[in-house]
Structure formats: C-alpha cells, structure tokens
Amino acid sequence: MNHADVYRGQCLCGAVLFTLNGEPAGIGYDRRECPVNAFGLWKQQALHIVRGANDIGAYNTSPHGSRHWCKWCGGYLYTEHPRLGLVDVHASILECFAHEGMNDLRISHRSS
C-alpha cells in the first residue's frame, strides 16, 4: 500500500497517472484470463486523474460499463461500472497493491 491508503497507477508510457483513495470496495481475480487477472473495485469518487486526462480514450463495452485506456500507448487504465458506482482496476498497474483477501471474489465463467 502507498501513503495513507492512496494507490498510484499509470499507463505503460506514463502519459496518464491516476490515484485511488482508500481501500477497495472489493477485490478478486478473473480465472478466464491466462495469466490470471487480479483486480480491485473502488468507488468512482476514489479515482482521481493526476496527469493526462485528455489522453484517456474510452469504449462502451456494454450498457453497464466503459473501458478506459491511454491514447498514446494503448495501455489499459480502468473500467467504469456506473450502475454499480465502481471502477475496476487491474492490480498489475498499481504500485504496491497487495491485499490479504485477494481470493475474496472470484469470477469464473462456464464454457458451453
């Protein structure tokens, strides 16, 4: 964890920098992806863009969410879930993100 429950994240090239304030509302991992993708869910108001707000692109992946990335390097930043009031951030792009309960939430999908 960073200073005073503030987590920092950025894109691959560093053009976009953001912080997340406070502890995540939930954490988990998605076993559909290989390697496994760990993530944290924060309330939308916890997300603060420090640098590069104009360099963020967005795509509505569904009526329930939009994926955000850096326009320069294409690096994933976060996904907004407005109906839930949450943002989903991959743990791998956050500095010093470690949480004891990383198995609190699992998302698994059955194949048909």
UniProtKB/TrEMBL annotation:
Classification via InterPro entries: CENP-V/GFA (IPR006913), Mss4-like_sf (IPR011057)
Statement: the UniProt record of this protein carries the keyword Zinc: yes
Keyword field: Metal-binding, Zinc
GO MF, one annotated term: carbon-sulfur lyase activity
Domain CENP-V/GFA, residue spans: 7-95
One Pfam match: GFA
Family note: Belongs to the Gfa family.
Name by which UniProt lists this protein: CENP-V/GFA domain-containing protein
